[in-house]
Design brief:
By secondary structure, the chain is mainly alpha-helical. It is built from six helices and no strands.
């Protein structure tokens, strides 16, 4: 005797429709902004990576690297505060607290630890 066909649960049944309505709920402006933001952040981290590689190839050492990239590093790390804003206004479905802790810990490391301790910067 064949097993009775199982019907998807109500969660599974409405999931496609729910996803579509949530996608429609996110405005075109928000989607455009998030796309721009992600492209800009990716480009910024790529610029930093290239600058680090070029520095090491040209100088043959990591000493002085922080000084050469610190402004760009601080800018893009601080710009990440917008991720908390994106959560707070509902542009992305992520916890504001979790995102805030992650972003703020990285900013703390760059602005207060790395910026303050010369040994970390390898400037000796």
């Amino acid at each position: 005797q064949p097993a009775p066909a199982t019907r998807p649960s109500s969660e599974e049944d409405g999931s496609v429709e729910e996803k579509e309505s949530k996608k429609k709920g996110r405005s075109a402006l928000a989607l455009t902004w998030l796309t721009f933001y992600n492209i800009a952040m990716t480009a910024g981290w790529l610029v930093l990576a290239v600058a680090m590689i070029r520095f090491y190839i040209e100088k043959g050492t990591h000493k002085g690297l922080y000084k050469s990239i610190s402004r760009t590093l601080k800018f893009f790390q601080t710009f990440a505060l917008l991720e908390v804003f994106h959560c707070a206004v509902g542009m992305v479905r992520t916890s504001v607290i979790v995102t805030g802790v992650q972003v703020c810990s990285r900013i703390f490391m760059v602005w207060f630890i790395t910026n303050s301790i010369k040994q970390i910067q390898n400037e000796e």
